[in-house]
Structures
1.
Amino acid sequence: MKKVYITRQIPEVGIKMLIDKGYEVDINKEDRPLTKDELMQELKKKDYDAVLTLLTDIIDADVINAVPSVKIFANYAIGYNNLDIKIAKEKGIYMSNTPSGGAERVAEHTWALILALTCRIVEGDLYLRNGKYKGWDPMLLHGERIEGMTLGIIGTGRIGANVARKGKFGFGMNVVYYDVKRNEELEKEDAAKFYSTVEEVLKISDIVSIHVPLMESTHHLINSDRLKIMKPSAILINTSRGPVIDENALVSALKNGIIKGAGLDVFEFEPDLAKGLIELSKIVITPHIASATEEARLEMSTVSAQNIIDCLEGIAPRNNVVL
Ligand code: GLV
């Protein structure tokens, strides 16, 4: 009987798909991610054929070498920076992600952060809750109109392209982008104009939104030097992965008026926040929930299970990322 380990409870639908295939399925019973040591111990208990992992699990050489029976680590996430693809390639095993799970919702959440900042939603809410509202005031909480502003997108995959289209066609913005690869579709639709460097996009944008995967080349893509290129009136949005931004440099830039604000759903030291971040009033923060809808989580459950089924039934998983 083929054996599958799931590193944390996920929606039942994917678990049922695996059980219906006749696989033996074990699930971490703790309501928290396992540490690397705990995970290795669990995986060593049986000769598992497949592991369904979450983005909080670090699947590196130690883990991969500890369980040579495993043929696939199927990530329940769009991002897969927690998986060591290089080692997987060397070992000839599969790794997969769930690219369709919540991408459109992440784009919507990006917009929620942009609007929360420019319309001062969180500040207004707190103002009311704290009993400060004494009636309409012409000087109260001025925000910004985003129509006509320039939106800069760094990374125009499925999520970044969606954010760009919403900016151009939904809000009447001038949209510019940088990517290592040009997005011909976006350009054909006249949705966004390509610039060949990150710097050019940072320099001219009123709002910058990051949509790159985390890898060596994108770690601290936004650092103190690049923050200095941005307009002092600009806001920075990140719904990708925390370490793409040097968070300490961001705190310092916000404190010193280098940029105006930031909307963040992801953090460099998750679940911790960089020192000083929480005290800033110029930010809107959410706890890595950009893709959190029931629909997306169900999709992630079925897609990650299907990747395992593909592999264990002898075909390449449809969302294999080891290329
Ligand atoms: C969430 O961050 C994901 O990568 O799915």
2.
Amino acid sequence: MRILIASPEAVPYIKTGGLADVAGALSKEYRKMNEKVCLVLPLYKKIRDSQIRLADTGISMNIPVGDRVIKGRILKNHQTAYFIECDEFFDRPELYGTAEGDYSDNASRFAFFSKSILEMCRSLTFKPDIIHCNDWQTGLVPLYLRTLYRDDAFFKKTAALLTIHNLGFQGLFPASHMRVTNLGREFFTPEGIEFYGKVNFLKAGMIAADVLSTVSETYSREILLPESGFGLDGVLKKREHDLYGIVNGIDYEEWDPAKDKLLPANYHFKDLSGKALCKRKLLRMLFKTAPKSREERVPLIGMVTRLSEQKGLDLVMQAVPEILSFGVKLVILGKGDERFQKSLRELSGKYKDNISVTIGFDEMLAHRIYAGSDYFLMPSKYEPCGLGQLIALRYGTIPIARRTGGLADTIEDFEPLTRRGTGFLFADYTASGMLDALKRAFCVYTDTEKMQSMIRNGMQTDFSWKRSAQRYLELYKTALQKRTV
Ligand code: ADP
């Protein structure tokens, strides 16, 4: 099958969140399976400034965006990833916006990108069987296939899948931005891509893709409900039979505690001594603890997260004094909303012996927190899939998480009698709900046997991409069948 993965980010090129892990890992998995796959991304400044070697294909394209025609060039890395260069849109410090807000021309930027994807296929004479679109930034692609490119024989057999990684991000723009899509006003209706007076790019993909998917079974059901459908539950309900849930995996080569080069020591589920060393080094680095001090024996809770309301930061802020009253240490690495950054800085100043806060995006520290912590906290308000808990499980770090979306699907609540389970779950989105789960978790901390069996259960659960990639391939076939009927 010829597969094109269209995504606004993908590892190893550029990453701001889990979507990048998914797009990158999936294409890598397909290559192992000998599928013909390529990725297409915007050529952001960060990619250009990186070590990645880019070759010029010599192909440029003229893309209409509203009443302008904008030039894009195609660059590539090996035969597997293509980059759309357009300095006017992508030669900027960030991907989507700065701390002050989103870039004001995001509608133009991603309408351009979406159209470039289709024009690129024609220019390269790469006729995909499936275009696997990801999130609102590529949401217009399925609708373009059905409208502007409907009569184009080149795409006659091309089907589209839209994967929704997070319904909270929809690509919403003022009505005046409809112009840059080059779609007629007839699409600015509730049945089309209008959404409470605005233009909604994600909705474009939701109404036009042959099949839809999201990143866990539970989340695929949750988004059909008004309380978690972000206003799009009605649209999704109409497409319920075309909506699937496929849980994300993680890249087992990148995330492998036995081989991870970013760790001070490696370990395996049969010998966890390296994990203890990782904890010691992490404590020493962040809290300047003395070697072999009593402090090394207290439970260490890690968080690696976007600092946004979705991730349950409100609960953490409320509960910090009580969490610390259990005699634990907390390590937080995150970047995001200024209000959380500010409160976290204050907290770390106030409790500097017990809370370490690093504001920023730091790959190495993330690996070290996953490895060196005893517990990994993810009290998300909602969580489409979540990768943090999967990585934590792989690194023998016990997740404490809210029972929602992918967290509910990938963590098994611990049952002390049977010793089954891999983590601790709580249902109510309240500080007391979270504290109850933390208490249950700390109860087993000194019970070495229980802790070890939980750690081993988690480390041995398979969250590699293999199974999920297989399921996506099946879904592509379903999309192709729907396309031809
Ligand atoms: P999201 O909703 O942000 O996509 P996920 O749990 O699905 O959340 O994926 C987040 C990914 O980004 C994980 O691989 C996590 O380790 C990584 N990550 C998040 N914040 C940071 C950070 N500040 N520094 C390094 N890695 C981070």
